[in-house]
Amino acid sequence: MMSKKFIYLVIIGIFIAGAFSCSNKKQTESDAIVLDSLMTTFTALSDSVDRNWAIMIADDDDKHILMKRLLLEVSYTNNYDKDRFLELTNMVDKLKAIRYDQESMRNSSLIDAYDSATFELADQIILFARSHPRYEDFPLMAELIDDINAKNNYILIHRIHYDNWVKELNSFKQSNQELLKGSDSGIGIETMPLFELPS
User: Fold this and answer.
1) What is the pTM (predicted TM-score) of this model?
2) Chain CA centroid to CA 22, Å
3) DSSP secondary structure code for residue 190 in this structure
4) What is the mean pLDDT of each run of 10 residues along the chain (199 residues)?
5) DSSP assignment string, 85-135
6) 97 contacts 113 by C-beta, under 8 angstroms
7) Were both Cys, which of 61, 108, 114, 159 would link to 195 (CB 3.0–4.6 Å)?
8) What letter does residue 77 receive in the DSSP assignment?
9) Whole-Å CA distances, 57 to 12, 85, 195
10) What is the C-alpha separation between 9 and 20, in angstroms, rounded?
């Protein structure tokens, strides 16, 4: 027959085990809430980064369209250098192939190369239009040139906005890297590159 002391110890053990189980459950629930909160913040920041990237790239695509539209306007005069027109048109078509992306821009020389190629080509196309003998008779040419120059002026603004959101996302990852490392959230802790060069 079991002694009262033994029964007492068994009961205490059951209570301790139950309390420990509840404590673990509460800790697990707490960790899940924290992770959910992290995922919500990460998703919001990532969406903002992607949205600003999309706006910037769409604006750059629009500039390509404007350059080709200016070339077409020259061609509508039926008095132009057809070989030069085709050469410049082909150069615009090739711009996207050398454009950086969100990962390749870690190599800042790719950004510099793309910028140089784009600005130089825009200048060549503008010169091609302005040197046309009937340039003054086609006011749309001047309007298109103004639009191209306006797009060029917006580049820095777009990049600053993009960098600001990337900085927020990078800071979030660094502040929570220990929690993110130990989770199955799928959130990578590597930082994203910026247009802004390190000081």
Assistant:
1) 0.81
2) 44
3) P
4) 55 54 53 73 93 98 98 95 98 97 96 98 98 95 98 96 97 85 71 88
5) HHHHHHHHHHTGGG---TTGGGSHHHHHHHHHHHHHHHHHHHHHHHTSTTG
6) no
7) 159
8) T
9) 67, 25, 14
10) 16
